[in-house]
Every structure is written in C-alpha cells, then in structure tokens.
Amino acid sequence: MCVRSGADLAGAVSIHGGLTTGRPAEPGAVAAKILVCHGASDPHVPMADVSAFAEEMNRAEADWQLIVYGRALHGFTHRHAVPGAVAGVAYDATADERSFVATRAFLADVLGPGLTSVR
After folding, report:
1. How far apart are CA 38 and CA 44, in angstroms?
2. Residues 69, 42: contact at Cβ < 8 Å?
3. Which DSSP letter does residue 69 get?
4. Which listed residue, 39, 48, 77, 104, has the most CB atoms within 10 A of its CB?
5. CA-CA-CA-CA torsion for 29, 108, 44, 89, nearest 10 degrees?
6. Are β-strands 33-39 and 63-69 bridged in parallel, bridged antiparallel, or unpaired?
7. H-type alpha helices, the chain
8. Cα angle 109, 37, 65; round to 5
C-alpha cells in the first residue's frame, strides 16, 4: 500500500487485500484517507494481520476505517469464483454489495459526490 510512504493521494481502498508490510508507516506519514473492506473468514489475510494493520495506522495517526464482513472469505467480490477451486476464496454476494456501497460512500466523501462512478 503506497499510502504508507506518504504518497500524495486523497484516499485509498483495499478490498480483500493484503495488509502486511516490511515498511510500516511512520507517525504523520499517511496523508490519504483509507478504507479497508475485509472478510472475517479470510484465511489468506488472517485477523492477526488486520489487528497489526489497525495498530500501525493508529501509530501513524492515519485517517482510516475498517469494515469486516462476517463469514466472508478472501476474494468475496469475485462473482465467477468456482467454489473449492482455490482454498479460502469464495464469492459472497452480500459482502460484495456492501463493500461497493461502502466504497462509493467513501469516494464521495474523499473526492466529492460527482466523481464516484464505481461499478
């Protein structure tokens, strides 16, 4: 996530993304607002990684938010995911829809209501 290095961004969204880093954000370095949408049952990005990310963002004094979708696995927005084809990856219609509603609201807040054509 380039926002950790202080990139000149208004906002960043992570939807079932990896949250670990070898270069944690320094206090005051994160300029962008951040939204993280995460599946509670994601074995590829366990809740320990989510907790570490939250602690890092708090130490960095970042403007961040996290939404965790119960029962959702990794890749919950992949409509064509074949159940069982990749361990821990599955489509979840509810989490998919909710994450994009949240993303649209986040982008409207960050960029303004006229600049949010997501999906």
Report:
1. 11
2. no
3. E
4. 39
5. -170
6. parallel
7. 47-59, 93-111
8. 50
Q: Left, alpha or beta for 36 (phi > 0: left; psi -120 to 50: alpha)? A: beta
Q: Are 33 and 10 in contact (CB under 8 A)?
A: yes
Q: Residues 56, 27: contact at Cβ < 8 Å?
A: no
Scanning the structure block, which residue is given the tokens 């993280």? 36
Place of tokens 């074995």: 43
pLDDT in tens, 90-117: 999 999 999 999 999 999 999 987 665 5
Instruction: Indicate the pTM of the whole model.
Output: 0.92
Burial class (CB in 10 A: 0-12, 13-18, 19+), 44: middle
**CA dist., res. 59 & res. 25, Å (int):** 8
pLDDT above 90 (res 119)? no
Alpha-carbon distances of 88 from 49, 73, 95, 113, rounded to whole Å: 16, 6, 15, 35
Of 77, 109, 108, the C-alpha closest to 90 is 77
Round to whole Å and give the CA distance between 113 and 67: 21
